[in-house]
């Protein structure tokens, strides 16, 4: 779905407040012997494009967003509580800190689905407009922007972390050493908040269209050169980060394959080799996390091409569903690939101590691998 940065979807530039500019539907179209068939087709297509969503479509959109968002929020809450209860995991400290930033960003975006997308889609109007609760609408839209930028930037940072740990140890030490990682995280948060602040200073504000079912940016003065340049730069960044991540992981997999061939791919014989295997496991987790971001970016490009009429609603539905999947995937990735976090999550659900179970999982792994 359209989000905070100039990502590759819906950007509506208008000076008409909160209203999206749609051409009016012709009240009447008559056909006589002199009417060109192409004119008939074009007029019919225009009418199809502008037909409002039926009540069935509105219910489909609203309750799909609601159900999927709840399915996403619950495991994210379990993951968040698990990470808090487990506390510090020395071998995964940096990876977990980055995962926590993505988790915060996921919550921001999922909240926009529950608090904005669902009710506006269901009722077909902005239920917050003209009420004291309008600040809720504005704050949640802002958080949706923060969430999108946070997922993009910290997923990219996670890719940099995996690349540098194998190929650039000096850079890795500077950015991701346990004594430096908090500085890096603060810098990224400051950077993305600066970007969002600039967008708002340009009077580009996040909105949700309850007629077309997507988030978009409404810019008051889109013709200003500085607006065009800045938002174009943000659009380029939104496209380029996923591509860079894809190339990064291809390079990493080639490097890892070569290293395993050189070592015979045998069983780890010392602590250094065990640590290398452990790092490879973290690479796999990061790859899967970035895959959903890649899928989301691809959906922004491909799905709007579906067509007109009711198909445009399914395009919005597909983009939002993929976006929700992206915000919901992390708990499942960690559950299946990270034994410590999995043990902690299971213990939490069973009302046991996540920290003890996670420590026991580490002890078991060390015993087996030793």
UniProtKB/TrEMBL annotation:
Q: Which InterPro entries match?
A: 7TM_GPCR_serpentine_rcpt_Srx (IPR019430), GPCR_Rhodpsn (IPR000276), GPCR_Rhodpsn_7TM (IPR017452)
Residue ranges of domain G-protein coupled receptors family 1 profile in the record:
75-334
Task: List localization entries.
Answer: Membrane
Query: Where does it mainly reside?
Result: membrane
Q: Which GO terms describe its cellular component?
A: membrane
Keywords from UniProt, A to Z, are: Membrane, Transmembrane, Transmembrane helix
By what name is this protein known?
G_PROTEIN_RECEP_F1_2 domain-containing protein
